[in-house]
Task: inverse folding
């Protein structure tokens, strides 16, 4: 009987650990706008890390002054499967990003879904999420 109780406890503990791991990843929970915004700027750095990689870029404000933005991508493992390396974007590269702005108004854009990244000089699309609808590349 004692062995049966221990087995039940082990199974319950395993299930709780598994469920805690699943719920550990956060959702958007209304943090980002639903509409897609397109911005163009100059890459400062590419940070390939988990759980979310980030492009740091300078985007001019209405007066032409640079504002430091963060563009949140998916994790490094997903990016590397699609060919991204530390050399995919370099400081000084001009890019166009389309994604969802954070509702707080901070200079932060989410590129995890409904998003794309395009090299401005060549109009080459280097990143697109599966949920982004087909359409023209937003390049001048």
Result:
């Amino acid at each position: 009987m004692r062995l049966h109780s221990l087995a039940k406890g082990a199974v319950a503990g395993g299930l709780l650990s598994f469920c805690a791991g699943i719920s550990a990843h956060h959702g958007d929970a209304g943090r980002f706008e639903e509409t897609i915004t397109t911005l163009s700027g100059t890459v400062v750095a590419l940070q390939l890390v988990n759980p979310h990689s980030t492009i740091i870029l300078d985007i001019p404000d209405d007066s032409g002054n640079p504002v430091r933005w963060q563009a949140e991508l998916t994790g490094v493992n997903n990016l590397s499967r699609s060919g991204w390396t530390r050399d995919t974007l370099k400081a000084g590269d001009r890019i166009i990003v389309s994604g969802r702005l954070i509702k707080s108004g901070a200079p932060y854009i989410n590129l995890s879904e409904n998003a794309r990244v395009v090299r401005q000089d060549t109009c080459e699309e280097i990143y697109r999420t599966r949920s982004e609808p087909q359409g023209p590349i937003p390049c001048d």
In short: The domain at 37-128 is CATH 2.40.50.140 (OB fold (Dihydrolipoamide Acetyltransferase, E2P)). Residues 46 and 55 are 5 Å apart (CA to CA). Strands lie at 37-47, 54-60, 66-72, 94-101, 108-110, 116-119, 125-128. The radius of gyration is 20 Å.
